[in-house]
Amino acid sequence: MHDTFLNQNLYESIVNLCKESSIERILKLVITVHTHSHISEESIREHFMDRNSKLIGAWTNIVVHKKEIEPLTATIEQIDGEKK
Question: From CA 35, how far away is CA 50, in angstroms rounded?
Answer without folding.
Answer: 25
